[in-house]
Fold:
Amino acid sequence: MPLFCRSQWEQFQQRHPDIYLMIGITDRQVDLIQDGVGCVIRTGRLHDSTLVARRLRELRWITCAAPSYLDVKGVPKDLEVLHRHRAVHYFSCTTRRDGELHFVQGGDSVTIPVSGTVAVNETGLYIKLGLDGVGLMQLAEILVADHLRSGKLVEVLPDMRPPPVSVSLVYPHHRFLSPAMRAFADWTAEVFGNVG
Structure:
């Protein structure tokens, strides 16, 4: 995920040379207390009210596909043609398989079932399948910004983008927050505040 680049990590280490970070990346819902994790960055609606959530920003979501896919299936101009398309499906431990794409049309949220041949639960693989021309994808624009700029992916239906998704830093109550964790939380909020 390109939210933390090398220069940002170097900046954090210069500010806090004594802090050792252990970073795990997973799409699995982590239980902070049970798993002994200091904090997590979560997207979407938050469910655990016993934790502190620090809202970082909203991410703009888009629908996109590889030119090789669009050359075969055509560029969808409206939602009515999506029944002729395929999507790379994304599932999580909580939602299982999701075979729908989400849009906003005329101010209303619209959900469209779109067939597909594969569902994954890991973002890197999801993007790779999209780049390989397997089907349409919906994800945060920031995750594929470089591919959009290079033309390896093309946004479709830009006037009907899915609703934005909130990103939050989640951690146990403040009284349990160590100075190192507080430093990381403040730095993360700063980085997300500067993400374009």
Summary: The chain has two domains: 6-56+165-193, 61-160. The first strand starts at residue 40 and ends at 43. The chain is about 25% helix and 25% strand. The chain has a mean pLDDT of 86.
